[in-house]
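--- STAGE predict ---
source: upstream dedup step, 1 unique chain passed
mode: sequence only
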Amino acid sequence: MAVTAVHYLALESKRLQRFLDLTGSSADVLRRSLSDAAFLAGVLEYLLGEERLVLDFAAGAKLPPAAVAQAHRLLAGGHVEEFG
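--- STAGE serialize ---
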């Protein structure tokens, strides 16, 4: 799901640039970090920080918005059961 979220951000150049600007990242770092759980957790955290983004992403991915939060917790080292 988190890699799909990166793809979602990249679909619009302004949306991607805002993510890169706010996170201090670059396109090169983004490409190299697609298998880094901590980075991917950060991508989901970014989406979760803006309701409009998380709702739009979740709708496009045909997921409930809560699934984004659950995926974030898992990538960040948490357990979904703890937050049920």
